[in-house]
Design brief:
about 130 residues; 5 helices; Rossmann fold; alpha/beta
């Protein structure tokens, strides 16, 4: 059981190690179990990556398979995990594409950290 009764782990997919570790620490302080992946490829290759997953936090600009492409690939899963996309600049076309691929939120990288925590709680609630 995670933060505030949220079930499942939170997978963080980001190639920036410092940013990924900071997000994991923030979520763990709020009671979530964080799993870190340095790339979408690493996430897709990890055995059981979707097992027990409450939500996915994906950096749009991750090298290799980018954030939206990862969401598009996961949209073929039945059902895909709820996802939050983090971007440098959030535009209406980006938000629409992300939502079509299963994202429950698209956050600007500059938003306060607690905005991410609130969205993770919300996203993980979709799994119930």
């Amino acid at each position: 059981m995670g933060g505030d009764g949220v079930e499942g782990a939170v997978a963080i997919v980001a190639d920036d190690a410092g940013g990924r570790e900071s997000l994991a620490a923030l979520l763990e302080v709020h009671g979530f179990r964080a799993r870190q992946y340095r790339s979408a490829e690493a996430f897709l290759a990890a055995a059981g990556a979707l097992d027990g997953l409450g939500c996915l936090v994906v950096d749009l600009s991750t090298a290799g398979i980018r954030g939206l492409e990862l969401l598009d690939r996961l949209a073929a899963a039945a059902p895909p995990p709820p996802a939050i996309l983090i971007a440098d600049e959030v535009t209406d076309p980006l938000r629409l594409h992300a939502q079509e691929a299963g994202a429950v939120a698209v956050l600007d990288r500059q938003e306060p950290p607690l905005a991410l925590v609130a969205q993770v709680r919300r996203a993980a609630g979709f799994c119930r």
